[in-house]
Amino acid sequence: MVKIIKIAQLWGCYKLKKKEKKPCCFADNETEWRVIKPDVFATIMDFFTSGLPVVNEADAPRADTAPSEDDDEMVAMIKEVLDTRIRPTVQEDGGDVLYRGFEDGIVKLKLQGSCTSCPSSIITLKSGIQNMLQFYVPEVEGVEQVKEEDVDVEKEVH
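That's the NFU1 iron-sulfur cluster scaffold homolog (S. cerevisiae) sequence above. Prediction below.
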């Protein structure tokens, strides 16, 4: 992730996305690709010669969606949809979604990264994530955002 950030800081690179596990640098309108290309390639080559691991620990399967013996079939399906359909899309824009529970038809999720400060995060949660989960798991009645403070309070109560 550090090297991706270094690419994003290059002059002329106005937007950087991770598509299909590859960084994509978009040059601004005033910068031609032939001008920025050598710097992008140099940054990538520096990374490969650094000896740092290619696989990022953050890309490993998340503990919140790891299958558990306690999970019923519905929870397992919810976790799979989150990992395979929802997370990759949200992560492209610099965010993430963490599974926090399923109770009475409501999936509890925590938004992270750019999703926490995005003004349209509620729309993403209700329109995008909720609709996708309801399509694949009809038993899902809704989606609720959980803030970290809410999780801490729940732990104290139970």
